[in-house]
Amino acid sequence: MQRCHGFSLLEMLVVLLIVGLFSALGVASLDAGQAPMHQALAQLANEARTQAALARHSGQVLGMRWNGRQPEFVRWQSERGQPSWRLESSRAVSWPAGLQPDWPVSAAPQVMFTPAGLARPVSVTWHWAEGRQRWQWRADNTLRIATQP
To answer: Rounded to whole angstroms, how far apart are CA atoms 84 and 29?
Structure first.
């Protein structure tokens, strides 16, 4: 009878499969803390681009402000001779707790989208416990996003 020293190919493949499975689960659990933040910011960026396009094509003045709990979009309206910012109806997106901008709470928007493009270049840094993301709206009406550690 011949004695085998070492592992067979099948045993090695099973061990590698188990190690790969555990490392994939570990990486996924480490990244899970930032996933809701990135998802919320991606949805907000898409909505901001939509609002900018809507302002250009409809001839209205729209804006984005921070209300203390979440960002919201507003429209410049004049009712009975009283011009003011009115809350825009938008998709209700749950905003993650702990995700905040470096903007103050304000009734007036920090970003204004006009028919001619962006009213002025604006930047905001979104902060959360594990990271931050910097947004810059440029004069040519583009949004540049940079994730920072």
So the answer is: 46
